[in-house]
Structure formats: C-alpha cells, structure tokens
Amino acid sequence: MKKASFLSSLFVAATLTVSAQESATITLNTDKAEQIIPKEIYGQFAEHLGSCIYGGLWVGEDSSIPNINGYRTDVFNALKELKVPVLRWPGGCFADEYHWMDGIGPKENRPKMVNNNWGGTIEDNSFGTHEFLNLCEMLGCEPYISGNVGSGTVEELAKWVEYMTSDGDSPMARLRRQNGRDKAWKVKYLGVGNESWGCGGNMRAEYYSDLYRRYSTYCRDYDDNKLYKIASGATDYDWNWTKVLMENSKDLMQGISLHYYTVSGWVGSKGSATEFNHDDFYWTMGKCREIEDVIVKHCKIMDQYDPEKKVALLLDEWGTWWDVEPGTIPGHLYQQNTLRDAFVASLSLDIFHKYTDRLKMANIAQIVNVLQSMILTKEDKMLLTPTYHVFKMYGVHQEATYIPIELDCKIMNLEGERNQMREELIDYPVLRTLPMVSATASKNAEGKIHISLSNIDLENELEVTINLGDVKATKAVGEILTSAKIDDYNTFENPNLVKPAAFDEVKVKKGVLKVKLPAKSIVTLQLQ
Ligand code: AHR
Questions:
Q1: Which of 199, 258, 324, 363 to mutate to test ligand 1, by most ligand atoms within 8 A of the CB atom?
Q2: Protein residue with least CA distance to atom 2, ligand 1
Q3: Which ligand 1 atom is at minimum distance from the Cα of 91?
Q4: For residue 147, which phi and psi values (nearest 5 degrees)?
Q5: N or C, fewer C-beta in 10 Å, the chain?
C-alpha cells in the first residue's frame, strides 16, 4: 500500500546520547491562545479489514455476543465514552472496490464479494450504508464516507450521495425509504477516492486531479445537507502530489488528505508490536515526531496556492504499523498495543494541536482490531488499549482553545545507520534530535485549563516547571498513564495492566507548577 520501502532487517542500533539536564521548563503563552482544536482531530477510521467491522463493531442481531441491534454492546459503550467525533468508512483500500448497492436491502439478498486487499476474506455485505450511518447517529459522530473512484463510476458515487442525503421525491431517496429509512441522514465528509496514487487506482497526480474535478462535480448538496469534499491526498514525503492537486483542483475541494504511519519499513519485517529494545523505542519516537515536519511541509505547499487557508489538510490515516500478532491472518493487520503505542498517540496529538489553522481532522488507523486500535476483541471478550486511554485522557482538549507553549527539555541525539538508510531511500533529511518531553495545553469553554505531558525518558523521572503566566491556579489534579515496562500491554487475561491512575505529584506556588513526571509516563492535568 506504500511507496517508500527499505530493509528494516539491516538496521543496526542507533547511538543514543543524552545531555545531563534532569528537568524541563514549560511556559504557557495564554496571550497567544486563539485557535480552537477541532474535535475532528480525535477522529477514527473503520475499514472492512480483518475483524474491525465483523466481530469488532458488528456481530449481527442474532449473535450470542450481547449487542444493540447488531452492534457489540461492550465496544459501543466504550466508544460512546470516548466521544468519537468523526468516523471514516468503508476504507482505506477497501473503499475503491466497494460497491455500495451491494450493502443495502434485505441481508439475504446482498451479494458476497472477495476482499482482495485484505486477505481474500469473503465479505457478505451485512454491514452496509444503513448499519454505518445508524451507528454514527447512535455514537453522535459525523460520518465520513470514503467514495469509490478507483473501480466505481461517477454515477455510482453520485447516487450514493443522493441515497444518503436526499429528502425529496428522488429515485434514490425512494429506494432508501423502501429499505426502511424515511429521513435522509446528515453526511458532511465525503472522500473522493483513497490513496489514488496506490491501491485506489495507481494514478498519477495530474490524472487524478482531473478525475477529482469530474467526480466531485456530481456529488450534490441535497436539501440542507452540505458536503465537505475531500481529495485523496499524498502519503508521507510525496510533496508533488499535494502541489499538483492544489494547482489543478483546489477550487472544488474543502480538504485534501494526508497519510502518515509510524512504521519502520515496508519490505520485510516492520518490527514486533511487543518485543523491542530501548533503541527501537527511541527510534520509533523519532519517526513519530517526524510527522511534524511532514505536516509543515505539506502546509507550506498549500500556503502557496491557498494563503487564506480555505482548503484544509486532513490526516485521515495515521498511527503505528507493526508486524501482525503471531498466529493471526497476515492480511488482517491485527496488532497488539503497548505503552510505546500510547506515546505515539500522545506525541502525535501534541503536534496536531499546533497546526489546526490548516489541519482540521486526523483519523487514527483503526478503531477496533486493526493497526493502532482503541479496542481489541476476541470472541465475547474486549479490552481497551493504552492508546484508548490516551484518547480518553486527551478528550478534554476537544474543541478547547489551544494554548501555545515554550518547552525547554533535554534532547537525545539519534545517530546510526538506521537513519542514514532511511535518508537514502526517502531522499529526505530525517529527524536526528529527540526532545524527551512533549506537551500541550488548552483552555475549554468553561475556562478550565488542561495540560498534557509526556516523559519519553525510559529511565529518569523529570521535574517539570510550568510557568503559568497570568493564569490563577491553586492546585492541579489529573491522571497518569504508565506501567512497569515500556512493552507492557493489556491482554484478555489481564486487561487492566496498563490503565490510567489518579495523579497528584503536583505543587502550585506563585504562578508556578512543579510536576514530578515519572519515567515513561503520560499525564493530563486540570488546573484549579
Ligand atoms: O489502514 C490500512 C491501509 O493503509 C488503508 O486501507 C490504506 O488506505 C493504507 O494504505
């Protein structure tokens, strides 16, 4: 599914040099707080892939697993708690082979298909448009439909939009009513293709940008439904894709997507999700933080064509990508989730908050049982991953005003052949310095300030001094996510090994907060 490839098996350990400072200082710049963090930065992605839909979100009404109209009760309740703001579906690569009409009407009449992208699994189409849009309504989240451009027609996509959103006496609205849904759904986000440079049709940017113009023309706004149309954007370091799309089609789009995975390689092993050493950990943190550079560079290209920032950048796939869990089907991308994954989540979210003048959505891949998921299921059992806990702890930042910060902390130098090899293959200077602390802050509608801190140092506790400026606070309360080992994870036998706990290692005195941040910990505080 990816372009860049290199032999991760040839990696050698990086040399890690850490300077001696054991403290960090943060200053909140409340006077520069302007930008609202869109709730969509906390978006999710659900693809017909492995057991994300079937067995993860959906078991069907007749299942012995407790369900609400076919949706797993345990998973549904956990997602409701998470306040999922937007859910992207049905792919991913699957979207460009998905024919929506196969997924409507009586279930017994729905044709089966082969899921060619993901292990050749037979897809029975029992989870289709109604099942998805009803789930979004129940969760109270915005649906994000990813349309088929690779193997579908303009007519097919245009009719799908009409089926979902037209309330008039139109042919597709009548068909929807025959299938049991009277009122149109509200659908805001519409992706016009996915990874059109790869699994979505192997197109060149010039060709796709014309196709985008054609397909998007016929996706109409019915009644009071207003579509927010998203062009299939670049992956990682493909600056040219963004440039060509902006040049040719910016006037017809509200957003352009970007995909970036924290992955060590695309050929051979991507590395184990659970077995890694300290070098691997720090290297992963570096690769994760490189997303900042990638966002900045794509934004700069967009600025050239759209200085008024009318077109948004939507990071609609991101997260970790490891080797599949031993013993599982390779094409199903089922992976475990350790405290390391939790740091990829916290560091990434800290970065996303900084760029919300252009970055309006981010969808972690994927919601259940696939890649860096929130939830893992096995038959009737369910567990919450460390990544779920980060999303829950960070929920306080949704729709709050971002407070820019200054951060001074110790820096690790990342040296070694691993970076040199990557550099040669991607033809891009990779990040060689790694701050050991990451942080973000925001102020919500009630005026409450929340600060999130990550100490990625695997050995040392840090004393963090936070200068509050003109913010008045007498105490701070919060939660911490940590564990004895960085490779700890939750299992069905021990589902609560990694979970948040109350945190009170904080002192406030004369506008200064002192926080004792344990090694390998993530903390979110509320000032009071
Ligand atoms: O998230 C898994 C896959 O990664 C998606 O289907 C595709 O868009 C990307 O390559």
A1: 199
A2: 92
A3: 6
A4: -85, 155
A5: C
Q: How far is CA 104 from the centre of its chain?
A: 28
- With 0-12 CB in 10 A as exposed, 13-18 as middle and 19+ as buried, what is 156? middle
- The residues facing 414 across adjacent strands are 16
Helix (H, G, I), strand (E, B) or coil at 387: helix
The structure's pTM equals: 0.95
User: Rounded CA gap, 161 and 258, in Å?
Assistant: 23
Q: Measure the CA angle with vertex 493, ends 488 and 499; round to 5°.
A: 45
Distance 53 CA to ligand 1 centre (A): 15
Average pLDDT over residues 176-188: 98
Instruction: Choose the residue to mutate in 148, 195, 270 for probing ligand 1, maximizing ligand atoms within 8 Å of C-beta.
Output: 195
The label of the residue with tokens 């609400």 reads 68
**Residues above pLDDT 90, as percent of the chain:** 89
Both tokens of residue 249?
A: 């089609």
In the chain the domains, ranked by start, together with CATH numbers, are: 37-398 (3.20.20.80), 406-527 (2.60.40.1180)
pLDDT in tens, 407-420: 999 999 887 777 77
DSSP three-state, residue 342: helix
How many Å lie between the centroid of ligand 1 and the Cα of residue 365? 8
Minimum CA distance residue for ligand 1 atom 5:
92
- Catalytically active residues are 195, 317
pLDDT at 19: 45
Nearest Cα to 411, choosing from 285, 262, 278, 320? 285
Using CA atoms, how far apart are residues 211 and 209, in angstroms rounded to an integer?
Answer: 5
